[in-house]
């Protein structure tokens, strides 16, 4: 590996991390949309009624809260683990 490869490595890692973050957020939004729309919108139409709007907001909020709890718990378990995971 020459000097130019070493200089570009951190940039490449940052770009990969950003790409993974974007993909992760796209998947999260897709999951929320799929689950909450199927739960809250029972009569598809041109507009959402008051109940459907409220249901969608509440559903997305609960989904994100639950996701945050799971993610925090998972990261805490990783930090408290002395050994890598094995199968």
Summarize the entry for a quick read.
With 87 residues, the chain is mainly alpha-helical. The chain has two helices and no strands.
Please, could you describe this protein's structure?
This protein has 87 residues and is an all-alpha fold. It has a single domain (8-77), classed as Mitochondrial import inner membrane translocase subunit tim13 like domains (Helix Hairpins). Helix content is 79%, strand content 0%. It has two helices and no strands. The protein has helices spanning 3-40, 50-80. Helix 1 (3-40) packs across helix 2. The protein is elongated, with a radius of gyration of 20 Å.
List the helices and strands and how they pair.
Layout: H1 3-40, H2 50-80
| Main beta sheet | none
CATH domain class: Mainly Alpha
Number of helices: 2
Structural category is mainly alpha
CATH architecture: Orthogonal Bundle
**Radius of gyration, whole Å:** 20 Å
Indicate the mean pLDDT: 86
Low-confidence stretches: none
What is the strand tally?
A: 0
Fraction in beta strands? under 5%
Provide tags for this entry:
87 residues; mainly alpha; Helix Hairpins; 2 helices; 79% helix
């Amino acid at each position: 590996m020459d000097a130019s490869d070493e200089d570009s490595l951190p940039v490449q890692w940052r770009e990969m991390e950003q790409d993974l973050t974007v993909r992760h957020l796209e998947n999260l939004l897709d999951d929320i949309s799929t689950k909450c729309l199927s739960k809250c919108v029972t009569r598809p139409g041109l507009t959402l009624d008051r109940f459907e709007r409220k249901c969608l907001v509440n559903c997305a909020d609960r989904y994100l809260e639950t996701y945050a709890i799971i993610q925090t718990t998972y990261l805490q378990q990783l930090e408290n683990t002395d050994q890598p995971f094995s199968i």
